[in-house]
Amino acid sequence: MNDFLAARSQMALSLGFHIIYACIGMVMPFFMAVSHFRWLKTKDEHHKNIAKAWSKGVAIFFATGAVSGTILSFELGLLWPKFMQYAGPIFGMPFSLEGTAFFIEAIALGFFLYGWDRLNPVFHWFTGVVVGISGLTSGILVVAANSWMNSPAGFDYVNGQYINIDPIKAMFNQAWFSEALHMTLAAFASTGFAVAGVHALMIVRKRNVHFHREAFKIAAGFAAVAAILQPLAGDIAAKSVAKRQPAKLAAMEAYFKTQPASPLVIGGIPDEKQKKVNYGLEIPSLLSFLVYDNFHEPVKGLDQIPEQDQPPVAITHYSFQVMVGFGMFMMLVGVLYLVAVWFKKHWLEKDWLLKLFIIAIPTGFIAVEAGWMVTEIGRQPWIINGIMRTADAVTPMPGIAYSFYLFTAIYFSLSIVVVFLLYRQIRMVPQLYDKQPKNLQLSHS
Amino acid sequence: MEYVIIGFLWLSILLYLVLGGADFGAGIIELFSRGDNRHRTRKTAYKAIGPIWEANHMWLIIAVVILFVGFPLIYSTMSIYLHIPLVVMLLGITARGTAFVFRNYDAVVDDMQVVYNRIYLYSSFITPLFLGIIAGTAISGRINPDANRFFEAYVFVWLNWFSVAIGLFTVALCGFLASIYLIGEAVDDFDRQIFTRKAVKWNVVAVGCGALVFTAAWVDDIPLIKWVLGNRVGLTAVLAASVSLIILWISVRKGHSMLPRILAGFQASMILLAVSYVHFPDFLIMKNGQHLSLFKHQAPDATMTALGWALIIGSIFILPSLYYLYYSFQKDGFVEDAEH
Ligand code: HDD
Ligand code: HEM
Ligand code: HEM
């Protein structure tokens, strides 16, 4: 494996893991806060215990999120020093604000985890909300840094020099809004489905049914709403991509030849040598419609982009299909759930609905990973779109392949341990969080 | 504005050294104690740092962010030539952070705890060791952009007597900070005695490692004595640190717990001052004499202004709540029965 490929793989691996921890760390505090709020209102101990059980999960993910994030902030330099040397001052603004957000998050989490039965109940609840809000803020801020790489702004590039730097303009670049919106919804949808699915599994297995049902309701509600809004946000994102990165859009759609009334290709196997898609389903004019809201305006194809500026087509296209496919599935489950809640209460007792949620456990995270592959691989060969090539940014140090193997081993063992811990948390629910009423009183007196 | 930013950079390095250091130190002293003693150390340490350990480690992130936004050339140069020790340090941080949480949040207590614990203890040692090595290398003037052989450019830069001695000194300092900190957390006289004895031991070790650093500097031809004692600020700082050490021991004797902590922190800041002052504003000392300076190699003005304001506004939010967090968990028995 050559060093350049190793560096790219290591970056992708680290971000791919971090994003999962980050999504959960951003979203779970909101679930906790809802349950906590219900407890404050109803005094039903179940809600308190749900919030507590979840807070253990949050602590685990927060720690893994924090360490993987720390790794990342070094990796940017370890792997891409040339990039950071020039980009740091331009796109660094969100990172410096993010620092504050993380700090507040860490402080609030300290209060929240150790404040049960000690702090004023409303203040305690509030610290939980602060954890969520600052997590979300930090997520949105990093995405601003990433969107700058896709849509560089806030500087002039003259003769290889970066001048007239304006970090605020760089932060609010063209791609920022669509990415931040889509990513935030993605975090809610993916975490929501994963959590709801695990509780659904427990209900189907008839374990601590009341406890899990209450937990399920909270997570499923968030998941359903986010999943329904997600394709809308995706459409906004696609329109923005078409404007700023026609090469990425063409790769996503495996759209090789510019045609008027551009068709949308669904599925299929792109053949990058022959520049065509085999076995795909073509729907005439739909791509024009999705991008420009009319059926005839031609969308720019890969043939209008110089060969050396084209991203890999097949993998971008597959990733995009995977994201959209799972997105549609999750939207469907979300719609069914809301129909059940509002019109068909008896569906909620049915196993088939719960089973759909169980199937949906991994789908959100798969879509998240696929979506990031679209964004990041679709940006290639650029690290800063149109300005700096990824190959020019990589570290001169040889032997990155070994570092890649090392980090692969670390991330995999980390994930195995996290899964193992969560499994034990869930298995311990009967002993720790949903005891018989008699014990409950004892332990909370 | 650059003074504000450099001030924050210095402060976050210091706070990471003191707070993060005490936190690593808790693991280090546990590593070097046995039996029941070890168990007590663990219990007290958990109680003392459980709620704040996340916050303690944020200072590293702040320092890194300041470097890459405000002083990008320094950040990228360090990243290139100190790649290997940085990776080892990251491994340490990762292993330690996760093991700490796992040993505290695992729902089931069984043999797995032994595994987490072992990882936690070893990584508590390795991380500050490499942090020290990195810091030592930054000031030792060995980074050599003209080297073209792998070992010369990427390995012997940091793998030498001086850097390793600084690493060991950092470890000892962490142990010292932690034992002083834990004296204040002791629940009874017996505990207090244990931690006092540890503090004495780590004080001796730190002094020994300090001597080692000077010896290594001599071996490696680094004029450390001249750097540290050859100017008024360095000399004053060293004197202040020595005097405060005496006061510290008197006050430990008298049974105080807050004053010794403040003094230990003060000593760490004096040490940092003495080493950073000589080279200021140079941050990375290079072999070819083209040192990287905090003044000459900073980001453009617009970025510095924005970064400075971000830090000022951020600290308005952070410092009071951080203070309140430390304050709340100082109150007796706050964490004692935090559930596992
Ligand atoms: C639960 C996850 C999820 C789901 C169901 C979807 N997406 Fe997505 N998508 C993401 C999660 C995601 C993401 C991981 O969050 C990305 C990566 C970068 C970003 O901002 O969001 C993303 C990126 C992304 C991009 C690239 C944006 C860019 O490069 O700036 C487009 C065009 C879409 N998405 C479009 C869609 C469409 C049309 C969907 C229809 C169902 C859809 N996504 C569902
Ligand atoms: C957490 C979600 C993210 C995921 C899953 C992700 C995924 C990836 C992938 C797959 C690559 C490799 C692309 C390739 O070389 O073919 C990559 C590269 C990279 N990403 Fe991201 N990314 C994420 C977010 C970000 C953010 C927020 C930043 C911002 C600062 C960022 C910065 C980079 C850099 C610097 C590279 C290396 C250069 C390159 O390959 O273009 N990524 N990422
Ligand atoms: C789209 C991509 C990303 C998102 C959405 C994201 C979001 C988050 C969130 C929400 C957290 C809080 C941890 C938690 O609550 O579990 C976190 C932690 C962290 N992230 Fe990321 N992040 C992303 C990419 C990055 C990148 C590219 C970097 C580095 C340059 C980074 C650096 C950090 C750091 C240093 C932490 C630890 C802070 C702490 O201790 O709270 N993140 N991230």
Give the tally of structural domains of chain B: 1
**Biggest interface: chains and residue counts?**
A-B, 69 and 63 residues
- Total strands of chain A: the figure is 8
Structural class of chain A: mainly alpha
Folded structure, characterized:
With 445 residues, chain A is mainly α. Helix content of chain A is 72%, strand content 5%. In chain A, strand 4 (269-271) and strand 5 (276-278) form a beta hairpin. In chain A, helix 1 runs antiparallel to helix 4 (121-150), helix 1 (3-42) packs across helix 6 and helix 4 (121-150) packs across helix 6. Chain B has 340 residues and is an all-alpha fold. The longest helix of chain B is centred in the middle third of the chain and has 31 residues, at 189-219. Classes of the chains: A mainly alpha (445), B mainly alpha (340). At the A-B interface, helix 2, helix 3 and helix 14 of A face helix 3, helix 4, helix 5 and helix 13 of B. The structure holds CIS-heme D hydroxychlorin gamma-spirolactone (HDD) and protoporphyrin IX containing FE (2 copies). One protoporphyrin IX containing FE (HEM) is lined by residues 18-19, 21-22, 25-26, 61-62, 65-66, 69-70, 72-73, 76, 102, 105-106, 135, 138-139, 142-143, 146 of chain A.
Offer a concise description of the structure.
The complex is a heterodimer of chains A (445) and B (340). Helices cover 72% and strands 5% of the residues of chain A.
Search tags:
heterodimer, A: 445 residues, mainly alpha, two-stranded antiparallel sheet, 72% helix, globular, disordered C terminus, B: 340 residues, 13 helices, 1% strand, binds CIS-heme D hydroxychlorin gamma-spirolactone, binds protoporphyrin IX containing FE
